Amino acid sequence: MTPELMEAGARRLEARQQHAQLGKTESGGRQAGFSRIAKHGEVDVTHGRILYLEDVSVSFDGFKAINKLSLDIAPGELRCIIGPNGAGKTTLMDIITGKTRPDEGTVFFGSTIDLLRYTEPEIAQLGIGRKFQKPTVFEQLTVFENLELALKTNKGVKASMFFRLDSAKGDRLAEVLHTIHLADSVGAQAGNLSHGQKQWLEIGMLLMQDPKLLLLDEPVAGMTDEETERTAELFLSLKGKHSLMVVEHDMSFINTISDIVTVLCDGAVLAQGTLAQVQADERVIEVYLGR
Fold first, then answer.
1. Which letter does DSSP use for residue 53 in this model?
2. 110, 114, 117, 233: most buried by Cβ count inside 10 Å?
3. Which has the closest alpha carbon to 129: 142, 120, 137, 138?
4. Residue 265 forms beta bridges with which residues?
């Protein structure tokens, strides 16, 4: 969740309390993007890639967390990232979202947007959404209010206090509720949801911002078998409409959703292919899967 949205959530809580008191209710390595002209807010995928990293490296106190890593993802692709602890999976997501700046390398969103020129909130506005392993929803608000808050709207104090849904936004919210399996829990307080439902709600909050690329960190960790199965259905329904990068350790889940799996080790790509191909790779077996 973006810092801007977190601040807006705090303001929405304060606004709701004020309304209650009044007796009221609230409703690179590539030359300048392949020589194409960049348009503000436009993600150019003419060349068949929505995300492109080349020779990216970053060190922390002498430790090379990412080492000459090159990776690209196609529009609408669902890419799974696996690897041992310390392989660089979280740092990779940090670099893409602007939380960490690499020491060297190229990171492009589409053919024209150099992500290294943007801040973390700006990257979120460009259309890259990130969900961390632990769900971060506003537990004192209802499911509906969480999704309403996440809409792409003016997040100023006055605008938040007097915001009302129009028909198009209401239809979008209803669509997302159905997608994330929470249509029957629209009025439930988020804090009373199960762990899996909170994960779905946060994914729904990201979807309300119309992201083009979703980064999802261990989304099924702690879920029941039924919740994991429904999450797989959710991800497959998003595939093609959005590009997804999923970091996960659950091989059964990965087998259900993945087309291409990238294995990271020591901050670089060790292997890539279908799950069956990487599971048969002797290097992957040695460093991650075991025998």
1. E
2. 110
3. 120
4. 268
Strand 213-217 and strand 268-273: the pairing is unpaired
Structure tokens, 192: 């009373």
Residues paired with 113 in a beta bridge: 109
Which secondary structure element, helix H or strand E, spans residue 106, and what is its range?
A: strand 104-109
Helical residues (DSSP H) of the chain, grouped into ranges: 3-21, 89-96, 120-126, 143-150, 157-162, 167-179, 195-207, 225-238, 251-257, 275-279, 282-284
Taking Cα atoms as reference points, which of 141, 140, 106 lies closest to residue 29?
106
Query: Is the pLDDT reported for residue 29 higher than 50?
Result: no
Closest CA to 8 of 120, 121, 130, 110: 121
How far, in Å, CA of 55 to CA of 67, rounded? 8
Residues 6+ apart with CB under 8 A from 103: 57, 58, 59
Residue whose C-alpha is closest to residue 113's, from 89, 88, 93, 96: 96
Question: Which tokens is 202 given?
Answer: 């946060």
98: amino acid identity, one letter: G
Integer Rg of the chain from CA:
20
Both structure tokens of 196? 């899996």
Kindly report the backbone phi and psi dihedral angles of residue 214, in degrees, each rounded to the nearest multiple of 5, phi listed first: -115, 130
Report the amino acid identity of residue 120.
Answer: E
Question: pLDDT tens digits for 197-247?
Answer: 999 999 999 999 999 999 999 999 999 999 999 999 999 999 999 999 999
Question: Collapsing DSSP states into helix, strand and coil, what is residue 175?
Answer: helix
CA-CA distances (angstroms) from residue 103 to 107, 224, 226?
Answer: 12, 40, 42
* Cα distance between residue 134 and residue 176, in whole Å: 21
How far apart (Å, rounded) are the C-alpha atoms in residues 207 and 143? 14
Residue 27 is predicted with a pLDDT of: 34
